[in-house]
Amino acid sequence: MNLWHSRAVVGIWALVFTFGVIQAATWAMDRSVVQHPSGIIQMIAAWLVVLTLAVVSTRRIGGLARTISQHEHARTATLDQVEQLEMSNAILQILSRSVDVPLAFQALAQRIVPLVPCDRVGLALLSDNGQEFQTYTARVSQDERRARPRPDVVFKTERTALGTVVRSREPLLIDDTSVGAADFLDINVLYSSGLSSALILPLVAKGRAVGTLNVVSRQPSAFRQEHIDVLMPIAEIFAVAYVAQQLQIAVGKYQTMETMAELTLSIAADINSALQTIIGHCDLLERGYPDPDLQRDLATVVRQAQRIAELLERMRAASQDRLKEVAAAVNQGGIPSSPEAYGGTEMS
Q: pTM, whole model, 2 decimals?
């Protein structure tokens, strides 16, 4: 656009210059034109008109160039938004077919490369205890791609750039991995692998950082703020998907524990009923037969039956406590436990 504008302006003033050359040649051949006052007035008027038209045309072309440039920028921004929406839609479609976030990440790595040119895409997920990261790497080259993702390196949160990003919840641009190689273990691994620059973004969902999304390149200073703007919505979707996966696992544990607890309580109740029957019959036998040896044997049976009843009670209490722990984790995740709870739940 700037080239077109420059050429148009140069063309206009070239015409003015050509007109001036022709005018000068005409004066050289016929000097009588400039010897009369009327000729000089006509010449000045003609030049005023030419210069005015040239200036107006130049400004008009400049205005058109700016308008076209604005429309072009708006079109580019719209295309970028469309690409972003297409990427988000692809992420949602893939995640809807699989709750395995690392597997979905492997499938989506190829779609990230057109948006942010890089050599590798990484995903680091924080463990349940919050003390270490399990990292996954997707090779963007077709020859290096893996059929399924597998964990690469486990990093502690301390002395790592991943931990720094999770604690700050702010993206981190690394223009030269050689600078931070001595301070951060994960950056040292990148530097040793021949990767020169990196961009690390936090995965934050419901106010909690659960990991990072990383892109790395063999070229130094390969990433800029515009790449952060492109990847942040993708990181947010990954964070929500990972939290949903954790909650689904928690729900599965809750359902399993609930089933086991109900089965344990039911079996314990049946066994306890049988034990009470045994104890009652022992009591009747003890009253009806005063034989000391029999009474001693009956007392042993009663003690063992009571001991089994106490063990069953401990089993019931342990099952109920474990069920409460899992239920608390589910409630903390905001998972509705009844149809009525869905109506009162605000979507975040």
A: 0.56
